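Data availability (excerpt). The following record was deposited with the supplementary files.
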Amino acid sequence: MAALRTVRLAREVVLTCRPPMKVIFLDIDGVLNCKRTSNPRNFPYIVDPKLLARLLKLCETTGAKVVLSSTWRFDPIGLLAAKHFGIPFIDVLPDMPHQPRRDEINSWLASRSDVTRYVVIDDEDDELDELPLFQPSNRTGLSEAIARGAAEYLDGKTDKDMRCRRVVRFLQNVSAIVRGHDG
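Predicted structure:
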């Protein structure tokens, strides 16, 4: 019995010794690349340098760490491409087939006690209604306004997220249900 208490106490000490962390759950397609991103060779994985620079500035100014929520995480080439382009991710969401991204994010958060603030940056709403979603247009990718809003949220200056209109989100959710969850 005493040994069990010691193990529990040791686990609590390890978990509470982690420094507090802010997290950005990052989608890539539609966020770090967009319809305007030049891709003359039609590569499946591409990052717009201007959009990546905005993400890097957001990470630098807030101290946030990136967790990939993008479908790039399912493909070893996608992960290699993310590293090649310099996306500073520390982890990826668990793969939970046929579950919305919301459940994958909540599962990841449940395994961590050190996350103090987090945002989801994704151009689609995959049942993310109760999570702090910052939703750029897939036509423009991560804008200055979205990055600024995410920074203010991560720094605790506001509790407002930045989403598309309800009708757009509703249509995105219906589309995700019809085509199936792809991560």
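Summary of structural features: The CA atoms of residues 23 and 65 lie 5 Å apart.
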